[in-house]
């Protein structure tokens, strides 16, 4: 049995309806055990002497029409070891249920708010979950940012008495669709890291940068060049030094007829690694960009 002394948050964004769950613990690969989510259905955090079955079990009951409290009550009623468990559930309507068993290792507790719950066990301080609750309520930004801030507050208040090791953050869309795996907007995890919450914050920035790049591609396809460039520039600011972002943005611009705008970007990329040009040469054969000899020569000229 995995001993997940953990602090976590489950939440529904009251403005967008998005669902989220975030967690940190001193245990390997918490993302495989504790956080569960499905767009439009709910989010679950299962921890302490963790029973992962609470995740899919709660989501299945929510899908059948139970609310968060009904789902959690049913699962707890079937669990002989419920007093060792700590579980929180938020459903697609914002109902919240949480349970901290009386045998969870101190310090342990939870605190609910409108559309969210924070919970922790085996903490260095009883201030961990109140600090998370306050941080989530007082933070502006999207759901992922607010949940991350809650984790940071929990760590600052003492965190896991054993230290840090792994973390995960999931956000799903508000409406359930036929392919739930496509509706997970954020899916980040650190399985083994000395400062997983700090690294999670960095990965969230990179994630947002890729979202901006994809938005730029869509705008460029619509002929909205100025708006597309702003998206690409914003992406580069979020993930400075990420040649992958620069490269594909430049490729899309060049292939869409904005070669002059793309050339300075290629020059910057090639100054660090000329292998990007070798990759570019292979794209026409795969049908990913047009086979334009003059365009390729202009781009190749950017190699010093």
| Extended strand count | 11
The number of helical segments is 10
Give the quaternary arrangement of the chains: single chain
CATH class of the largest domain: Alpha Beta
Average pLDDT across residues?
95
Shape: elongated
What separation lies between the terminal Cα atoms?
58 Å
Helix/strand-derived category reads alpha+beta
Poorly predicted regions: none
Task: Write up this protein.
The chain is of the alpha+beta class and 304 residues long. Helix content is 41%, strand content 21%. It folds into two domains: 3-192, Aminohydrolase, N-terminal nucleophile (Ntn) domain (Glutamine Phosphoribosylpyrophosphate, subunit 1, domain 1, 4-Layer Sandwich), CATH 3.60.20.10; 208-300, Serine Threonine Protein Phosphatase 5, Tetratricopeptide repeat. The protein has helices at residues 54-63, 68-77, 128-138, 143-156, 196-221, 225-238, 243-255, 259-270, 275-282, 293-300, and strands at residues 3-4, 6-12, 19-25, 35-38, 42-49, 85-91, 96-100, 109-113, 116-120, 166-172, 184-190. The chain has a six-stranded antiparallel β-sheet with strand order 8-9-2-3-10-11, covered by helices on one side. Strands 1, 4, 5, 6 and 7 form a five-stranded antiparallel β-sheet that branches. α5 (196-221) runs parallel beside α7 and α6 (225-238) runs antiparallel to α7. It is elongated. The relative contact order is 0.12.
